[in-house]
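Reopening: structure tokens for the S-adenosylmethionine complex, inputs below.
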Amino acid sequence: MAVVSGVLYVVATPIGNLGDFSPRAAQTLAEVDLVAAEDTRHSRHLFDHFNIKTPLISYHEHNEEKIATELLTRLKNGERIALISDAGTPMISDPGFTLVKQAREQGLRVVPIPGPSAVISALSVSGLPTDRFFFEGFLPAKSAARRRRLEQLLAYPHTLAFYETPHRISDTVQDLVQVLGGQRPAVLARELTKLHETVHAAPLEALPGWLAADANQQRGEFVVLVAGNPAPATLSQEDAWIERLLTALTREMPVKQAVAIAMEVTGRRKNELYRLGVAGREDE
Ligand code: SAM
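Re-run output (same inputs, fresh job):
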């Protein structure tokens, strides 16, 4: 594989275990002209380990706009640039959005060099359904806002995936129990691919006690997975709400448009929505 001029490579790096760094990722980082990294000091360790000499430039959430403009100019001049984050896949709860969006808008080629991501790694070993899932990333830091956000996710019927830091893991798990109830199957995936990797499955209500019982289990990086809402009672409450939404929307606009909006808001399929609220109404 030869890296090509004027191309932005979005390169995944390990989430802990350097053995997960792919040969293609290493080759790309070694061959490009410049690597944009979230924290250059952090990435220097990776570079030293793999003997990569490519210059690094810092690209993080506080200088995204400014550096993106500079990088886009350099790409247009034919330079080959790679984007990495501290760990895992850039853009997944990590910087990169401004640069990738603008590169694509400006007709530049953006090439993925895929590899580790904590959420996919956690899902793959969780034993929870993964045919569909909702990736929330980090919940709000403050409990009141966190609970409000969780209320919005309450009815979601598929697996929920959260990222969390060691400072907040206990509080977040308590809020999960408060808002989602204690019965749902959940998985705490901690320090994946590292020495203290732990994948602990339990009903949500058991997680606060499990964390409190061993301070070591509160250290490191976490993915929290929670099974979706299985409760027909809640789903039928949600159906009733959707029916009301559709009734209100169809008063104001054609059925087709109402259903399109309801699909966006509820995530339900077109057929379900027609069945729920608008079967037999005018423009259908
Ligand atoms: N871009 C990364 C990815 O693709 O997974 C995620 C970056 S985000 C800033 C960092 C968060 O990812 C951590 O707070 C933690 O929730 C999760 N994470 C990263 N590495 C992890 C690991 N080895 N084990 C468990 N969770 C991890």
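The chain has eleven helices and ten strands. The chain has three domains: 7-116, 119-226, 237-282. Marking as resolved unless the reporter disagrees.
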